[in-house]
Each structure stands twice: as C-alpha cells, then as structure tokens.
Amino acid sequence: MLEIKELTRRFGENTAVDHVSFEVPAGLMTGFVGGNGAGKTTTMRMVMGVLGIDEGEVLWQGRPITRLDRRRIGYMPEERGLYPKQPILDQLVYIAQLKGMDRVGARAQVTELLERFGLGERTKDHLEKLSLGNQQRVQIIASVLPRPAALVLDEPFSGLDPRAVDSMVDLLREYTRDGVPVLFSSHQLDLVERLCDRLVVLSQGRRVAAGTVAELRDAGVPRFRLVLGGDAGWVRDLRGLEVLDLEGASALVEVQEAGAEQHLVAEATRRGDVHEFVRVRPALSEIYREATA
Amino acid sequence: MSTDTPRTDTLRTDDPRARDPRTDPGHDRRDEPAWLLVTRREVVSRITDKSFLLGTAFMVVLIAGFIGFNAWQEERTDSVTLAATPDSAAMATAIEDAAPEVDDNVAVTVLEVDDRAAAEAALRDDEADGWLHPTDDGWQLTSESSEQGSLTDVVRAVVQQQVLTDNAAEVGTTVDALQAGSTVTTDFLRGDAERAGVAEAVGFVFVFLFYFAALVFGMQLASSVIEEKQSRIVEIIAAAIPVRHLLAGKVLGNTALAVIQLLVYLVVGLVGLSFTSYKSYVPALSGPTAWFIAFFLAGFIALACLWAVAGSLASRTEDLQATSTPLTMLMLVMFFGGLSLDGRGQVIASFVPPVSAVVMPKRILAGGVEWWEPLLALGLLAAFAAVTVWVGERLYRRALLQTGGRVSLRQAWSAAE
C-alpha cells in the first residue's frame, strides 16, 4: 500500500499541494481527479521523488519510501516522449536496466510486452517511425517496466485511441488482480467512474474528497425520490425534509433530520399507494463539480 | 517476521512480493552502476548514428588529404622552361646548371629562341614559363601574366651570383673575399627555426581540434539534455536513478566519444606526418601530444558539465541558442586566446583554466617549459573541472525538472529541489 501523508509543496508564494493525505490500497485502482492546476501532477512527482517534498511524507508498505522502492514503481509522466531516434527495443531495455533489471531479464520482458501490444515485429524501428498510437503503446510499456510493485500514472488515457484504452485497462486490471496498487489521474470522469475502486478529489492543492465511489455518492445529504398513486403535495408539510422538486405524484426530497425519511414512507403508505421510493445518489460528475466548486 | 528472513533494510526482504520468484523480475541483480548504463547508451546511440560516423570519416579524409597534398607538393619537382634569346643564352644555361643547388625542387630547361617576338610567342603558347633577357641596368624575367615564384627565386639567386662573380673579377677580387665576414646566421637557444615553425603549426592544430571538439560535442551534449527534458523521459529516469548519475553518464559518454575521435584524428595526423619530410619530428611530437590529450580530457570534462547546464536551462531546442551563448563566447575566447597569446600573456594564460587547456600544450610544443609547469597547470585545470562538476551538478539537477520556458541561472541555483 502506498500512503501519502500531509504532502505539501510550495513554489514561492504559491502552495501547489497543501497537506494532502490519501491512500492507494493494494489491488485497488485509485482515481485522482481535479481541475487543471489542482496539484495532481505535483503530488505524483513528489510520490515519485522527481520533485522535492516541503512537508509530509510518502510511505510504502508502512515505512518511508526509498529510491529502491521507487525504482519498482511504474511511472508515466504527464507529457509523453521517449527517445525518438532510438530503436524501441533498445530504449525500453535501457529503461528497464535503469530500474534495476539485468540485461537478459529486461530483454525478455520487453520483448514479451512488445509482442503483447502487437509491436513484436517492430522492435528495431526507431520510435519516431511508429504511428502515434503505437508510440503511446511503447510509452505504456515503458511505464510498466519492470513488472511494477505499484503504478503511478499521470493522465494515462489522454490521447489514447479507444483500442489502446481497452488494452491499457486490461493491463491495469491484470496488475490490480495481482495486488498492485494503482494511482492514476484523469480528466475523463466517465472512465474514472468505470475503472476506479477509489477516488481522490483535489482542488486548489487540497484534498476535498476521498473514498470509494459508493462512499462518495453516499456521503452527501441523502436524497429520496417518492412516486405516489395520488398527488404528493402534502409532502411539503412534513418536518425534517426539504422538497427539492415536486411534480404531481412525484417528489424529490432531501433529508435534513435523520429518520425523517421513515416518517415520509409511513405517511405515504397510510395515505395510499406508493409506486416508488428510492435513494437518489448523485452522479460522480455532480459530486466532482460540487467538491471542486 | 519469520525466522528464515532476517530483517534488513533492503527491498528484497522487506517486501514479501520481492521474494516471490514469480513477481521478482530480477531487481538489483544488475552488475552495472546507473552512470555506466547512461554512458553506454550515450556512446552506443552516437556511434551507431550515421551522421556522426560520416562526419568523423570526412574529417579523417580531410586530414589525410591535407597532409598528403602537402607531402605531394613538397616532393614534386617543379619543372619550368626558361626561354632564352641569344643575348641571354649563356646566363640561362648557367641557371639550368645551378638550379638544383638553389632549390632541389626546381628543374629548369632552357628553350632557345631567336628573338623577342619568338620568346613572347613561346610564353603565350605556354611553351615557356619565363623569358630572361638583359636590360640596361640588369636582367629581366618576363612571364605571361602570373609570377613564376620558384623560377624567379632561382633566377634571382643565380643571376646575382653570376653578376657578382663577374663584377668581382673586374676589380680584381672574388665574391668570397667581398662577402667575407658578412654572413648572419640564426641560432635559437631552444630548438631551431624549423622546429619553431612545426611547433607553431601543430599548436594551431591543437587549439583548433580542442575548439572543434568542445563545440561539436558540447552542443551535442546540450541538445541530448534538452531532448530528454523536452520529452519528459527525464522524469522516468529521475524516478529510477539519481540525477547525478544521469549527468555523470552523459558527461563521461560524450567525453569518451570526444577523446576517441580526437585520438583517431591525432593518430591519422601523426601517421600521415611520418610519410612527409617532417617525419623526424614525429617522436618529438608524441610527448606534447600526450600532454595535449591529458589537458583535453580535463578541459573537456570541465566544459561538458557547463554544456549540460546550458541544455538543462532550456526547455526547447530553440532556447539553446540563448542559454549556450556564454559558453560559445568562452569557446571563442579560448580559441583566439590560444592562437594569439604569446610572451608573458601566454605564460600566464597557460595556468588559467580553462584557457590553459589549449595554451599549455602549445607552450609544451614550443619547448622550454619547466617539468613542473604542465603538472601545475593540469592540476589547476582538474581543480577547475571539479568545481564546474559540482556547480554544474547543482544547476543541472534543479533546472532539469523545470519545464516552464527558459530557466535563469539564478532561478536554477536557488530553486528548491
């Protein structure tokens, strides 16, 4: 498990990351969302040791992270690019070696990954000779070398074509199945919602929300939709509820006093038919907008 | 904690995944330090680069060609034809006979013609290179339109000798008697004139090679730093190895390449020289050449770190022009300083790094340097290199990850990491 504790980074007067704490549990995908300049990239760079830490710490398996640990964390920086004029096999082997693999092992793993991504025939090609989509595949391979103990990916899906997104997702799922913690940032909330087990929302350098998607959707003031056999106008007279929307037989209410929704159901069944009584959970995008507003 | 895994601070025992053979892909079993990996990539990616190989081959051809041309020029006998009218036939024959003594590369053939018109026609038709004829107060050598350098020298010397002999005989004496005691010979306390000339020429070559290599490899180093910075691969590298290792690897790789290339040029040059009449100097040149290589090594490392800084201050290739200006200026100062300084200025400069890298080898070539002087200069240069490595490392490390446009030196120096 990767733990981020009270991480803080200032650039001059500007505090880019302000006492941010969260966890990236083993085997789970943690999405990292927030607007531009929210501090996602700065946080990830601090986690990777690429940027110095002003305050706070990063823990790996419960103790302060070391360079050796970081070497085993797959990292994809926000902007992409490798060596354009070097054969892809050579540069991937080089990166794997920098990360501590021996030459033979690195070659074997790189070859395997290149084949998996359909680049087995092009190992000797210079990176710049590949199509953009294939260059992105090479970039993905570079970030999962060597078989990572954790993954920190900054906008891994940006610019990927749908097929590359699918292979990336498959790959990530494979890693989480093996117990690898994955942290990735993204602007694409639909993708985050589809993929993530957990979510951390950053706004202006602060953590404004964190938890599983379900937790976050449950976290707000509970809302219920009630659909009756007859007119629902009487709902307005109940205590502890705020009616957000009322239209004929249908009402949307927000619970302001715990238990008020139980009175609502009791009253409704007493008065007649209840067609629908359901908890309304806000969409992720709504939560995100509220949290970062 | 199980008993069979003693607790240590290494990754392999702390992390249960690392002990699992299925998930441990061979971490930290590599036998090479990170800087060596970087060095190797720099060297391999460069020597497999066609433009680098072609450039080196071109330079070798150029050096070999230059030396070959000079050798050929030197060995070649200049055959000239001297037209002589009846009034100058005797003198022309004397010149023909005496020419090899004056200049052994000039062979003169006499072409006897009847009169002025025939002589001029011969000149125009390129049958003769010059026409010698007496005038009222001496002799004249007429040629078509260009000065016949070697012929003129020979004619001048022989005519003078001949006329002097005749004049001396007329007044009842000899040339030798007239010239007795008038010779001025030159002598050097150190070496001799030809040696000084060779030292001057080789000194120029040293200064030029240093300038050329420092500029070419420096630029290359700086742009490879930008390449990594611009593509952000540097973040992947910085997450895996200390940035210090990256810098060391890049500097060492480019230094190795520069030195290898320099050695190739020097070997081609010295071997080429041994085929010319200067071959006797080759043994005497090997000492200074060895010193030059040592000075080159220290000087290049010092400058390479600064080039890496110039690269790291830029965010895009377009910025390099601006961030490297102070360095290109320094290169020019070294180049012209190396060429033009002499006397006391040269002695002082030969101890001042980084200019000493080119000036001291030149002084060693010229001779008369005390044994301790090159050692002191090399020591100072090495100390300077150590300082630039230290300063360069700090600047490079801090500027490398700042990607918003150009970074100023002050920003880089004071930036938090």
Automatic annotation (TrEMBL), chain A:
Keywords: ATP-binding, Nucleotide-binding, Transport
Rhodanese domain sequence ranges: 197-243
Domain ABC transporter: 2-229
Top-level taxon in the UniProt lineage: Bacteria
InterPro entries: AAA+_ATPase (IPR003593), ABC_transporter-like_ATP-bd (IPR003439), ABC_transporter-like_CS (IPR017871), DrrA1/2-like_C (IPR025302), P-loop_NTPase (IPR027417), Rhodanese-like_dom (IPR001763)
Protein's UniProt keywords contain ATP-binding: yes
SUPFAM superfamilies registered for this protein in UniProt: P-loop containing nucleoside triphosphate hydrolases (SSF52540)
GO molecular function terms attached to this record: ATP binding
Listed PANTHER family: ABC TRANSPORTER, ATP-BINDING PROTEIN (PTHR43335:SF4)
UniProt family annotation: Belongs to the ABC transporter superfamily.
Protein name as annotated: ATP-binding cassette domain-containing protein
UniProtKB/TrEMBL annotation, chain B:
Cleavable signal peptide: none
Membrane-topology descriptor: Multi-pass membrane protein
Residue segments, region Disordered: 1-30
InterPro entries the UniProt entry points to: ABC-2_transporter_component, ABC2_TM
Transmembrane segments: 51-72, 201-222, 251-278, 290-310, 322-341, 371-392
Domain ABC-2 type transporter transmembrane: start-end pairs: 50-391
One Pfam family hit: ABC2_membrane_3
Localization, UniProt: Cell membrane
Keywords annotated in UniProt: Cell membrane, Membrane, Transmembrane, Transmembrane helix
PANTHER family reported for this sequence: MEMBRANE COMPONENT OF ABC TRANSPORTER YHHJ-RELATED, MULTIDRUG ABC TRANSPORTER PERMEASE YBHS-RELATED
Name the UniProt record assigns to this protein: ABC transporter permease
